[in-house]
Amino acid sequence: MEKVEIPLGEWDIIHPGLAVYLVSTVDGRGIFNIAPYGMVMPISYHPLIYALSSAKDRDTYHNTRETGEFTLNLASCELLHQINITATKFPPEVDEFKEAGLTPIEGIKLKVPRIKECRGHIECKLNQLIDVDERVIIVGDVVSLSVDREVYMMDSLKQKESLAPIFYCHRNYFSLGKYIGDRRA
Ligand SMILES: Cc1cc2nc3c(=O)[nH]c(=O)nc-3n(C[C@H](O)[C@H](O)[C@H](O)COP(=O)(O)O)c2cc1C
Fold this sequence. Notes:
This protein is α+β, with helices and mostly antiparallel strands. The longest helix is centred in the middle third of the chain and has 9 residues, at 59-67. The chain has one domain: Pnp Oxidase, Chain A, CATH 2.30.110. The strands form 3 sheets. The chain has a 7-stranded antiparallel β-sheet. A 3-stranded antiparallel β-sheet has the order 1-11-12, with no helix packed on it. The protein has a two-stranded antiparallel ribbon with strand order 7-8. The protein has helices at 59-67, 80-86, 96-100, 149-152, 156-163, and strands spanning 18-19, 21-26, 32-37, 40-44, 49-55, 69-74, 104-105, 114-115, 120-132, 135-147, 166-169, 172-175. 18% of the residues lie in helices and 38% in strands. The protein contains 5 helices and 12 strands. The relative contact order is 0.20. The protein binds flavin mononucleotide. Flavin mononucleotide binds next to strand 3, strand 5 and helix 1.
């Protein structure tokens, strides 16, 4: 097959999409914030460490720097509308749980609330911030994981489908999560 070199600006053509997390944080006054993030990944399993890439004008970044805490709530396909609401640039004093009609539930280890409508939650304490050009990599040590009991009790091969992750690429959303085989396939 012939290969075609494409402009760097057309990166989305070879981008499979990013699983969307709703990142919950609290500011120093106790006001809750939510923002969708796609640039999120584990960078170590033992110990469990996650990193996310953020622009510096995000309340998420300011709150994390201020309180040292953030929670990654895995979003599912049915939360598409709420994801788009929380992607709006609200002033810091606006509680985005209320704006999006999402329900805060207490964190297990952190003051940051989890989002009830999400099925899995990764509570993180800030490890470090790394400047990369105009952006910042937020690195967090995972201090608690929680998941809907229904998902936990399920056959592990069915779990991904039941999480119904939603993937984002260049302003469009896609679904994924069907089991297609193991490493010997
Ligand atoms: C699906 C989706 C994924 C996003 N991923 C990121 C991301 O990884 N990093 C980032 O800085 N902004 C990302 N954004 C943009 C922020 O969510 C958006 O600017 C939001 O208003 C920031 O809210 P905040 O100021 O309350 O933190 C994403 C937006 C959408 C819709």
